[in-house]
Design goal:
- The complex is a heterodimer of chains A (about 270) and B (about 90).
- Chain A is an alpha/beta fold and about 270 residues long.
- Chain A contains 11 helices and 8 strands.
- In chain A, α9 links the parallel β4 and β5.
- In chain A, α6 runs parallel beside α7 and α6 crosses α11.
- The two termini of chain A are about 35 Å apart.
- The radius of gyration of chain B is 12 Å and the shape is globular.
- The longest helix of chain B has 11 residues.
- Chain B has about 90 residues and is an alpha+beta fold.
- Helix content of chain B is about 15%, strand content about 30%.
- Classes of the chains: A alpha/beta (about 270), B alpha+beta (about 90).
- At the A-B interface, β5, β6 and β8 of A face β4 and β5 of B.
- The structure holds zinc ion.
- Zinc ion binds next to α10 of chain A.
Amino acid sequence: MRHEFPGRAWERRNPEPLNCYYIDMITRKEREKYDRQIRIDGLGTEGQEKLKQARVLIAGVGGRGSPLAVYLAIAGVGNLRIVDNDEVSLSNLNRQPLYGAEDIGRKKTEAAELRLQKLNPDIKVEAVFETITEETVSQLADGCDLILDAVDNFPARYVLNNAAIKKGVPFLYGGIYGLEGTMTTIIPRKTACLRCIFPDPPPSEIFPVLGSTAGILGCIQAMEAIKYIVGIGDLMTNRLLIFDGFSMKFREVRVESDPQCPDCSPSAGS
Amino acid sequence: MNSIVVRISGSLRKLTRGKTEIELTVAGNIADCVIKLEEQFPGMREKICDEEGEIRGAVNIYVNGDNVRSLQGLATTLKAEDEVDILPAFAAA
Ligand SMILES: [Zn+2]
């Protein structure tokens, strides 16, 4: 099933479709680089061009943000805006393969930008060292076709959730704990939002996390983002995926909008 | 009395000492299920319910894949072989 491509940011950047077609058409080198994925049913060169055009916000370049950014970069997603307010520390290195021992003390955004540009010099990486708050989020998400959650706390997720609702762009939620993870795809006004699913934040603590759990969930989010941009497959909408590495099982539960949701119901914010 | 399976996730597994699936025999509804869990794993009720006895906003309980919040909450009745999922929100990045 194909779904509608989110055109708003795209159209804003490319008011003249003909122009945009010639400017953004993929080069011969790119065609070769992405050959194996261009062969995927429904992707093709047209899908590759959509990836090149897309701009995504990667909120957080830590555990899930590392694989998320890497796999979107090497897939040729044209514009990655990475946001984080943290510096690389020793205890990050078990699960954040964007960084190495030599990066300790550096801003994650700076180290990540360098690494991502090395992996794929043909894309644009915008590194923004900033905290995600009600005040900053509108600008951080400006012009983005989708918002990817790779943050480590619920208050920031609710801020991103609200920004996605206001801007009408999808928000891909993910969260992990130990060997377990969850994710869902939120399409404002079409699916439940994060607040519908979890009305309150869990208590903050230092969580147990295995790097491969972050890798699995980050890769799933990256795949979902690519499907969304290209317009292929069935999205994880109105479903919450639950991965349990202890028993090595995937399962899903149904997700429903809360008609009284303070964030996404029609009366919200009024 | 109905025999059901309760799946425990995330931080709640600290209380079950890592056990992921708990078989329970319960009389009626989700509230009974929480009482039974509390008997076996002291501290569970406080993790699941708030001071008013309502399900916490950071915890979801599903019966056969449906969130009990959109059913009858703690009063949601259980029948034999129902699968109950208790899922606290995962926050780590
Ligand atoms: Zn909502």
